[in-house]
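Aim 2 progress update. The chain analyzed this quarter is reproduced below.
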Amino acid sequence: MTSNESGATYAAAGVDIEAGDRAVELMKQWVKKTNRPEVVGGLGGFAGLFDISALKRYERPLLASATDGVGTKVALAAAMDKHDTIGHDLVGMVVDDLVVCGAEPLFMTDYICVGKVHPERVAQIVKGIAEGCVLAGCALVGGETAEHPGLLGPDEYDVAGAGTGVVEADELLGAHRVRAGDVVIAMAASGLHSNGYSLVRHVLLNQAGWQLDREVPEFGRTLGEELLEPTRIYSLDCLAVTRATEVHAFSHVTGGGLAANLARVIPAGLHARLDRGTWTPLPVFQTVAEVGRMQTLEIEKTLNMGIGMVAVVPPESVDVVLSVLADRDVEAWLLGDVVDRSAEHQDGAALYGDYAG
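Predicted C-alpha cells:
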C-alpha cells in the first residue's frame, strides 16, 4: 500500500456509525415518554434496567415473556414512506400476548434491522413503538438498531420486539379456569391488525393490481391508509376488566384466526360455539374475500375478521365486562358460549351461521 492509499472503513462497507448515533439522539425524546417509576437509567447502556423490587407485593409473581414482529406490513409502511404507526403494531402483537394470561406488561425492548440507517426514519419507527408502549402502560427500556447493507436494500427494514409482564400465580388466566356455561365476549379490532398481510397483498396488490393510493369508497380512504391502520392495543382494557370482575381466559386473535386462537384456551372436553350473526366484519375483510373469491373458512383461518381480542367469563360477569369495555370505548358484544363436548362437537371452537348484514 502506498502512502496516499487509504485503508478500508466501516462506512465504505455500508455501515454509518454517525447516522446510528444521530438516530439514537432523535429517538430519546420518544423513549422518555414511556418511562415508568421502575425504570433505572436511560438509553445508552448495554442493557435496560428495571427495578423489580415492586414485585415484593406479590405472593408468587410469575414473569410472562413474549416476542413478535409485524410481518410483511412493514413493506407497506416502506412503500408509503410512513413509519410512525408500525410500532403500534409491534407493541400490540407483544403486549396483548402477555395480557392473555392476566399479566401486566412491564417493559419492552425492540430490534430494528435496516439496510441503511436513515436517522429520521428510525426515529419515526421508535416514536410509534413508544406511543404503543404508552397505550399499553409499559416502558421501552432499550433496543438495537442494526445496519445490514447487502442483506437488505437501502430503504428496507424489519422490526421485532420482546416484552415482559407479571401476574400473580393465583390469578393466572387460561384454559384451566374455563367451564361449561361460560360466555364468550368479542372485542372489536381496528382493522387487519398485523396478520395475514401476505394474503392481503397477494389478493389486492398482486392479483387485482390495486395501487396503494387507490380511493376505496367502502373504506372512506385510500387502500394504503386502510392497510396501515394500527393494531388496537387491548392490554390496559383487559387489565381493567380483570380488576373489575372475574375472568377465566382471554384469547388474542392473531395468525390462525378467531376459532384457532380461541381453541387454545378451551380445555379438552369443552367446545366454544360462536355465532357469525352477532357482528358484521369491517369492509376490508369483505373486500379481500370478494376480490380474492375466497371461501369463508379460508379467510377466517387467516384474518381476524374484525375481532382482535376475546374474553371468556362466567355468566355473572358479563354485564360488568361489557360496561367496563364500553366506558373504555371498546366495542364489545356477546359472541357465543362454552358447552360440554357432544358427539357432533369437537374440542376447541367453531363458528356457526352467517355474518350479520
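Residues 168 and 295 are 43 Å apart (CA to CA). The mean pLDDT is 91. These observations will guide the mutagenesis experiments scheduled for the next reporting period.
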